[in-house]
Design goal:
- The chain is α+β, with helices and mostly antiparallel strands and about 350 residues long.
- The chain has two domains: about 1-295, Alpha carbonic anhydrase (Carbonic Anhydrase II, Roll); about 300-339, no CATH class.
- It contains six helices and 15 strands.
- It has helices at about 1-20, 35-40, 155-160, 185-190, 250-255, 300-330; strands at about 50, 60, 65-70, 75-80, 85-90, 100, 115-125, 135, 140-150, 165-175, 200, 220-225, 235-240, 245, 280.
- The strands form two sheets. Strands 2, 3, 4, 5, 6, 7, 9, 10, 11, 12, 13, 14 and 15 form a 13-stranded mixed sheet that branches. The protein has a two-stranded parallel sheet with strand order 1-8.
- It is globular and about 45 Å long.
- The termini are far apart.
């Protein structure tokens, strides 16, 4: 009996040791410089994040990116603290799942497209650090990653590590004075998930597009990896040029999580060597004339507001011109009727 107990204890201790060795963080013995000791692919040659050096990017005109169901209302949104990031999962009615086609994704998967899996965040303890990718060595205070799965694969696990199996849409954040209204409830939920494995649900689920930048036409693209273990490569990255606005107060909602878990302090991986890779910048065939021209999906309420404001302006202008014309002709002895 005692021999069985000894074996049982040894197995338990080995399992605990293995679990601890497979953990990762952003500092100390589990920091990024040690990831490859437990996750061999983290030592690959095509790793992310990278610095996007604008002098060396290659302009390329991709086919249009198509965003389907990004305006669909989800049936639920769960926000979780997994000990490494704030993870957001959205559930949708069958057929309403957000999908992306075209652009750099069409190179190896022209018809299948990519389906939304989850999104998560990386941030720093101050405004000078936080984003994973950088542009001309400039770091933004935070970054959003929307993770997509190639529909040629039945699930995320089978797509992982496959050529063009996974894609990431990356969005930078920039500090503005006013709160971003689309992030108000999200920031409130952060205070309820202070510790690892805590989750909270949206009371009124919002659309995926509301979390993103308005400009989805100007972007950079390259082939890289997941920025956390297992660091699987062959990931298509699309980094959008226009940042998302967020206030200092809202961003501090992320930073307050570090008071309860050091793993969440500066949860971004250092820049990795570019090696033999090429970074592409999407070349627009015709530059958009305004912000609305940059949106592949239209926010109907905002668009209606712009149309009504424009109509009022032109109505006032035309009325003034007609009045001036009528007065001028009347003084010359003519009569004019304005309908």
């Amino acid at each position: 009996m005692w021999k069985f107990c000894v074996v049982f204890v040894i197995v338990i201790c080995f399992s605990v040791s293995l679990t601890l060795s497979q953990d990762f963080g952003y500092g100390g013995k589990h920091g990024p410089e040690h990831w490859s000791e437990d996750f061999k692919r983290c030592n690959g040659k095509h790793q992310s994040p990278i610095n996007i050096d604008l002098v060396n990017v290659v302009e390329r005109e991709f086919s249009p990116l198509e965003f389907t169901n990004f305006d669909a209302k989800p049936t639920g949104i769960q926000v979780s603290n997994n000990g490494h990031t704030v993870l957001v999962r959205m559930t949708f009615a069958e057929g309403d799942e957000p999908r992306v086609f075209g652009g750099p994704l069409a190179d190896r998967s022209p018809r299948a497209g990519y389906q939304f899996e989850q999104f998560h965040f990386h941030w720093g303890e101050n405004d000078t650090i936080g984003s994973e990718d950088r542009i001309n060595n400039h770091a933004y205070p935070a970054e959003l990653h929307v993770v997509l799965r190639n529909l040629e694969y039945r699930d995320f696990a089978s797509a992982l590590g496959q050529d063009h199996g996974i894609a990431v849409l990356a969005f930078f954040f920039q500090i503005q004075g006013a709160d971003n209204p689309n992030y108000n409830e999200f920031v409130q939920l952060l205070s309820t998930i202070e510790r690892k494995d805590m989750s909270a649900n949206y009371t009124r689920p919002v659309r995926l597009q509301d979390f993103l930048s308005y400009d989805l036409m100007n972007y950079y693209s390259y082939i890289g990896s997941l920025t956390t273990p297992p660091c699987s490569e062959e990931v298509t990255w699309i980094d959008f040029e226009t940042p998302i606005d967020i206030s200092e107060y809202q961003l501090n909602g992320f930073r307050q999580l570090t008071a309860h878990d050091e793993h969440l302090k500066n949860n971004f991986r250092p820049i990795q060597p570019l090696n033999d890779r090429t970074i592409y910048k999407h070349k627009l065939s015709a530059p958009p004339t305004d912000k609305m021209g940059s949106i592949p999906f239209v926010n109907v309420d905002n668009f209606a507001g712009r149309i009504s404001a424009s109509s009022a302006y032109f109505y006032l202008l035309s009325t003034c011109l007609c009045l001036c014309l009528r007065l001028g002709l009347a003084s010359a002895g003519f009569s004019i009727y304005v309908f």
